[in-house]
Amino acid sequence: MAQGIGICGQTIRCFTGNALSELIGQSNLRKSTPADYRKLREIVCTLERFGTLGNDIQLTSNEIEANHVIMCLKTKEYNKGIQDPSQFVPGHQIMRRLKKMKESPLFLLLSKMPKGGVLKAHAHSMCSTDFLIKLTYAKNLWVCTTDNGCKFRQFRFSKVKPTRIQYEEGEWQLMEQLRDYHGEANLRKYLKNALNMYPSIRTTSSIAAWNQLERIFDLLDGLLRYPPVWAEYFYNALKEFHADGVQYVEVRSKLQRFYCLDGSKLPVQETVKIYQEQIGRFQTDNPDFIDAKIIYSPLRHATIDQMAKYVKMCTILNKEFPDLVIGFDLVGQEDRGDPLSQFASELHKLPDNINLYLHAGQTNWYGTRIDENLIDAVLLGAKRIGHGYAITKHPLVMELVKQLNIAIEVCPICNQMLQLSADYRNHPAATLIANNIPFVISSGNPSFWRTSPLSHDFYVVFLGIAPMNADLKFLKRISKNSLKYSGLPDEQKSMAMSKWKIKWEKWVDYVIKNKDKIMAQNAEK
Amino acid sequence: MAQGIGICGQTIRCFTGNALSELIGQSNLRKSTPADYRKLREIVCTLERFGTLGNDIQLTSNEIEANHVIMCLKTKEYNKGIQDPSQFVPGHQIMRRLKKMKESPLFLLLSKMPKGGVLKAHAHSMCSTDFLIKLTYAKNLWVCTTDNGCKFRQFRFSKVKPTRIQYEEGEWQLMEQLRDYHGEANLRKYLKNALNMYPSIRTTSSIAAWNQLERIFDLLDGLLRYPPVWAEYFYNALKEFHADGVQYVEVRSKLQRFYCLDGSKLPVQETVKIYQEQIGRFQTDNPDFIDAKIIYSPLRHATIDQMAKYVKMCTILNKEFPDLVIGFDLVGQEDRGDPLSQFASELHKLPDNINLYLHAGQTNWYGTRIDENLIDAVLLGAKRIGHGYAITKHPLVMELVKQLNIAIEVCPICNQMLQLSADYRNHPAATLIANNIPFVISSGNPSFWRTSPLSHDFYVVFLGIAPMNADLKFLKRISKNSLKYSGLPDEQKSMAMSKWKIKWEKWVDYVIKNKDKIMAQNAEK
Prior knowledge:
Two copies of one chain form a homodimer.
Chain A: H1 17-25, H2 34-51, H3 61-83, H4 98-102, H5 105-112, E1 116-122, H6 129-135, E2 141-146, E3 151-157, E4 171-174, H7 175-182, H8 184-194, H9 206-224, H10 227-243, E5 246-253, H11 268-285, E6 291-296, H12 304-320, E7 325-328, H13 344-347, E8 355-360, H14 373-379, E9 384-387, H15 395-403, E10 407-410, H16 412-417, H17 429-434, E11 439-441, H18 446-449, H19 455-465, H20 472-484, H21 490-513, H22 515-524
Parallel strand pairs in A: 1-5, 5-6, 6-7, 7-8, 8-9, 9-10, 10-11
Antiparallel strand pairs in A: 2-3, 2-4
Helix pairs in contact in A: 3-21, 3-22, 5-19, 7-8, 10-11
């Protein structure tokens, strides 16, 4: 073995990456024998495998059987992709592949899978476009149009025609009259595009994408800030999420004041109460649903005085609704706002029991003040970080996040839609997986991407971002993470985990029982 | 300070990332005071800065002055990009931005900068398209066309019409007759596209891009494997590289046998001799040019027997030309070939003095056998790794690469052209910079991307991949790396460094002397 390396096969499991690196650093690998090379290779591959997210999970014998089915579907789709990358869904703009995805046996299986919770969902972008269109049939709904009635800008419920016009050449019209005028089919078609990002499918600039996103939020504002509609919307959101295998939701909400038909405004507490009522109602109707919480999330584009008011408001609401308003965050395009450090002194005033779940690192402008938000999110004591897209450019932050057990909320489709990333195979979450950094998968604004509440994001992560051999262990770890890193009080987490486990085991049984059918469908593809 | 963290300002420099991470891990950051937060922030930012590639460099007072100019240009272009990402060149497909880049004062300055060496250049894709077109005027040149003379497939020098036809409906015609027939302008226009990747500017599949790349190599083969033309081509390649601020080149070459006008083949030694003669000639003509070396690089799509022959051939050539044929590599699309591990036993037979400079990790198929090539490249003892694009998915490999001082040959434009990456701001080299992993910038096949030998790659790395504040220290480190990690014998490295330093200092002086002019041009942009 001369100047090679002496390693006995059984010692593999005792190695850590550091020890190995030091050992190898001393040696001249060009002088090692083929046998040394093979042993070292085995060690490195083993260390890699055990260091990857999900490998702490032990599968039951049932899960092993189900895993075999899942991996058959995954491997087939993966290998087809290697043969012809143009056919690999996670290599492309997802809105162009929605139809193809619906035909994927793997996607169908993941859709049925109990995925735990969604920890990052923005209040006004949770429901499907179809449901939003239904809401526009409500009575007393006016719409402000521009471009001779061709562009919808704002909705508003009112007994009489609203007078305030925010858009040049804007004109208020009753929705039902407009429907008669344009024809129902045409109007539905128009809304089908206007209420999501589909029109900006070709956009290549993050600013253009954000502008489109904000136009949709503006349009929806008057529709959703009307109490009876919001109650219906939020209940339906929980229904859609639940149907997609989600049992727990944390909603980022600006908690704005709602308005009445006469134009008067309600106190913000009334807003929170509607959430509370609908969550209660949904839990009664669906005993397997765990819970929903609110993370108070005003816009980051604020002055320090405004921030002080937000912090105060959050403190008040948390006192009044301690089990519901549990956290604080700032939303809106990070690149356009002030850095978190600007607001540090205000954020320090937030009581300890209100968790910080801060958006940070949703940028690819490396080394800017905004990029540094990742450092601030950690040092301000965030429990989770929203997106954290830039984290691989900050090794020290990665180390801290791991040590402090801060979970990253990975929202891959959102990143693509807002022009941070293109091909999912290059998404930085792969590096999180490789480094075993805790993370959860979320969807952010699924309503705007025409995707399901969570399944599409799970699919692109599992097939496109995770390693080829990531299997049911990975899916189980990621699902469990969504409860582990949730804002549920510790004492409620075991209850939550039990509710998830019941559904999980049912799903595993379903996979086993339908094995032959699933495999036959897969063979046809 | 209660449960906060006690850190005295002066201790910042004593911290390592690990120590900090452990210290912070013990504390509750939500309980730290605003003063603690600010101190910690300073420490983390300082550690980040000092941990980033290039921060070991001390600038001279002249360099500090030049740096001010460079950073003015960079900051202006960067900030414009933040304002309007559609204007930010490194956010886009580079072939669509070549014109815009030519107008960038930063690009112009980098073009003039002495950049050291190019350590990864493929022999047949070094010269500009314009020069290639010139070569097609040589006497006795035949071209095999298909599609009724509309597609050029193969070139061949011959006294008489070649008889071997490899393409269906292929037809050999004399180039000069074809030129008369189509008209010179039309033919130039045709070749202007056929000899580079421009026609596949819209390609979105790696396989389609590689197919196009290989079609160009096939077309060029008969043109360049003819000794007098190759001599002219290679001399001109050195000239173009030298004019772009490159003083040293390592060429990946298959070292195929050349052919004569009568169709006979020369021994491979004759091929090497032409390199040797032209390098000598170029050094005589340009005393500031350091040297050029060959890395013998057959195709990776080979059987084990073929590989054994390649290893033998490399050993023979290295014995005959010890100062010229210094290394071994395998080329061709990694995703399509066998993994390196397949050839390990053959590669082990290569004498130690022949360095391994292995392509590895030029893939985004995470977790495949090909993706594992990164592990093999390290364990086989590679001195440098070509591309290493997938390395951020292999933290243990990153650690080993750093400890073993293996440099990654980053070829950003090549990665984009071959459909690995899109937006340069997401290129994994940013993570290499953040982790201070040694790397060099190379161009690979600049001829095929219509880019300069190295300046375009430097520009996208400096502006698009490196952090906003990366400055002349970074550029100097990267330039020096290209000699430090070269295959030059240690005793020649100081000579090489001196030759580079002379040009570097001249360039710094040039920047200072032309400061006002450069700044005025920048103000106009």
